[in-house]
Amino acid sequence: MKAPLYKSRIEDDIKIRSYYGKYIFNSHFLIFLTIAAGVFLYSLLGILSTMEPTIYLDLIAALIMSVLLLPKYRSLLKEADVLFLPPYEKNMKRYFSYTSQYSFWLNIGLPIVGLVIALLLLSVGHSVVEMGVFAVMAVILYIMALFIRRNAINSPVSQNTVITLLVIIHFISLMLLLQNVFFAAAGLALIAGLYYWINKKQYKNLDWTTLVNYEAALLQKYYQYVSMFTNVHHISKQYKRRKYFDSLLKQPKPGMFNKGHMYEYLFKRTFLRDNDLPMIILRLLLIFTVAMVWVHQLMLSVIIILFGLYIIVLQMSQLYTAQAYLLWPKIWPVKREYIQESYIRFSHKVMLAISLALAALFIILHPPYFYIAVIFPLWGYLLNSYFSKSVYKKERLLSD
Questions:
Q1: What are the transmembrane regions (predicted)?
Q2: What DSSP element (H or E) covers 158?
Q3: Which of 105, 128, 182, 224 gets the highest tally of CB atoms within 10 A of its CB?
């Protein structure tokens, strides 16, 4: 007997995540996560042991949970469903029930981590009862947010509006109960009011096109996230011109229009006009900077920079595999060695600029240990050389 539709869709999604998960959570990343989590927890406990009760800790805890209690609903619908499933709409309650349960567990990781951090912050100045009520309220808000975001897809209310309202309600609800546990009733009333308002806004029949497009957008975002660690063949590459980067794309001199140098310019052009890659790297740098400034701990800063360069090198290596086999070699066929050497020169320059920027930030944060910053450009160079060779090795194995 054929498996129910929801079961096969969930199993397929789990297979995709398991396949890419082995590349994301490899031994290097797990070692980094273990060390970073240990250093972070040790630093946080050290800071909290010296702090007095203050409303600022409540604000931070509530803000963390407000942002993390926003589960995304995965309908697992596909493009062809727009044609075949509308006649069975009334019989699909079970399907959407199981995809809701799947979405609940799929998004639970970050809220749990955030709740642990929030409870550690609240351990300064709050009783066990207050912390327990805070945790229960967080669970309720998480469940309600999932239903609200799911129902909002089939309504004229935009997801940005829903997210904004949820963040505000989460923050107000959690802050109120931290002042007095009996104020939790007000938070429940707010989230219930938003739930009923979204329900009233829902269309009578399912908007299948919107549901399918929303699922496709979420899947695309997942692939973009995975592309930070490994190549993703399902992701659709897009390019855009950013005029503020034009100054970095000066036309090469006549003597540089040859097989030994032109591909370096083409890699540079592709990098600057890639729709995602420059912005992903900038966001990563921003995240690493905020983490270093906030924690301001020597060993954690070193680990963050080393891991950051590792992630960025993985991003850069995809530029070669994405472009070296497409249109360029067909228009201008040259020996593969020229393309490889051009990519190495280009990627070394980018990694040197990034590693020097992170080294400068490290020196600003930890002036007495300025000499440690020397390892960052060297680490970036070694990583880039290693991953470039691994890409070329795969290329040789597949080219016979």
A1: 23-48, 54-70, 102-122, 128-148, 160-176, 182-198, 277-296, 302-322, 343-363, 369-387
A2: none
A3: 224
